[in-house]
Amino acid sequence: MLAEIRGLNEECGIFGIWGHTNAAQLTYYGLHALQHRGQEGAGIVSTDGEALRALKGEGMVSEVFTPEKLEKITGMAAIGHVRYATAGGSGIENVQPLLFNSTTGSLAISHNGNLVNATQLKGHLERQGSIFQTTSDTEVLAHLIKRSGYESFEEKAKNALSLLKGAFACLVLTEEAMFVALDPNGLRPLSVGKMGDAWVVASETCAFDIVGAEFVHSVEPGEFLVINNDGMRKERFAYPAERSICTMEYVYFSRPDSDIDGINIHSARKRLGKQLAKEVHIEADVVTGVPDSSISAAIGFSEQSGIPYELGLIKNRYVGRTFIQPSQEMRERGVKMKLSPVRQVVKGKRVVMVDDSIVRGTTSRRIVALLKEAGATEVHVVISSPPIKNPCFYGIDISTSGELIASNNTVEEMREIIGADSLTFLSVDGMVQNIGRTDPGSKCGHCLACFTGEYPTNIYPDTVLPHEKEKVK
Ligand code: SF4
C-alpha cells in the first residue's frame, strides 16, 4: 500500500485476547498482522488478574517489542494497539493502549477511530477538574468512566461510551475483564474470534489467522461485550444508528486477506475493478495495478476488459516510510524510491494503471511519469473509487479539503495535473453495489462522506475547520 506517500492514512489497529497464558506474545503477532493500519507507535497492556502492565514505544511492532521485553508482561489477557496519529499528534504519551492506574482500579484503553465531540467533552471535563496527560481524544473515555456516578465498572463504561460521538472501536482492559465496544454507526470494523477457550478481538480478521483463531462474529454497532473468566456476554451501550462502515476499509485500508462482515476484501476489490471496466472502455495493451492495494482491482479490470494483466510496477519493500518526511519534495522523492516500473512490460505499450484512490495527486503524477519514462506510449489512469472531495472526521488522515485534488479540480483538470492520457473514477453506485453489503438503506451500510459530503453523524462545530464549514452538509 502507498498510504504513506499518498497522505491517506488509517489511524489505528486494535487487538485483544482474554484467557490465554501467552496473551502478550499472541497480541504481538496480532499487531504484526495489523501493522498496515499504523506504523508510528505500538503498545501492549497485559494483566495477570492482579495488575496491568504496559509495554509501548514509537515505531514499528518489530522495533518496539523484543522477546525479553514481552516476557516482562506475562498474563492471561492483553490488549494491543498500532497507531498512526490523526488526532492528538505523535509522541510516546499518545501511544496506546493508554494505561490509567488508580486506587479504585486500573484500566487500559485501545481505540481505533476519531471522536467528533472530543473537544467539547474535554472542555467539560477540564472545567470539572480533570487534568489530561495526553493530547489523544481516547483519554476522554477514561475520564468519563472514572467520573461516572454508576456503581459497577460495566455501567460506568456503558454510560461513558454513550456520551461519545464519532468513530470508535474500543477495547478496555481491567484486571477482571476485557470490554469491547463499537460506535452506534459501526464506522470501523471489529471482529470477535475464538482460540480454544480464549476470546480474541481484532480490527481485522487477518489478525485471527496469524494467531490461529477462528472468526466468530462481527461486533454490532452500539454493542458492548463483556469478556471474562465466565465467557463472553453481549450487552448494548446504545441503540444502533444507520450502519455506516468506512467504505475506504474495503477500497484501500484493510488487508486483502481480511473479511469485513463476511465480505472478503480481495474479492470486493476485484469486483470494483470489474465494474470500472464496465463503466469505461479503453483501448490498451496491458493493465497494471499500483502495489499493493490496487492489485486486486487491476486483476478484476483485466478479467472484465480482456486486456492482459501485467506486473508493470514493483514496490521496493525495504525503503523507510516516507510519510514522516513532511515536505512535498521529499514525498515526491519517496514515490520514486518506493516504486519502480518494469520497463520490459510497459515499453511501447498503452498502459491502464489501476489505483484505488487519489488524494493529493502527487503520487499519481509521479507514477504516470515513471511509466512514461519507462517507455509507455499512453497511460490511462482508472481509480476504483469515486473522487475524494471531502475531509474525514472519523480517523482517516484527510482533514482538510484544501489538500484534496478532487475538491478543487474537475476530472479533466486532474487528468492534466497528473499527466495521464485519460482519467476515470468509479461511480458511487458502482462502488457500493459491487462491494456487496446488503444493509437496508440507499447506502447499503456505508459511510460515503469523503465522496458525497453526507456525514453519518453530527459534525460538531469545532471539529470543522473554519474554511471547511460550507462543505459539510
Ligand atoms: S469519510 Fe471516507 S475515509 Fe472517512 S470514514 Fe467515511 S468513508 Fe471512511
TrEMBL record:
Pathway: Purine metabolism; IMP biosynthesis via de novo pathway; N(1)-(5-phospho-D-ribosyl)glycinamide from 5-phospho-alpha-D-ribose 1-diphosphate: step 1/2. The active site is at C12. The keyword Cell division does not apply. PROSITE patterns: GATASE_TYPE_2. It comes from the Bacteria. HAMAP family: PurF. This is Amidophosphoribosyltransferase. It comes from Planococcus dechangensis.
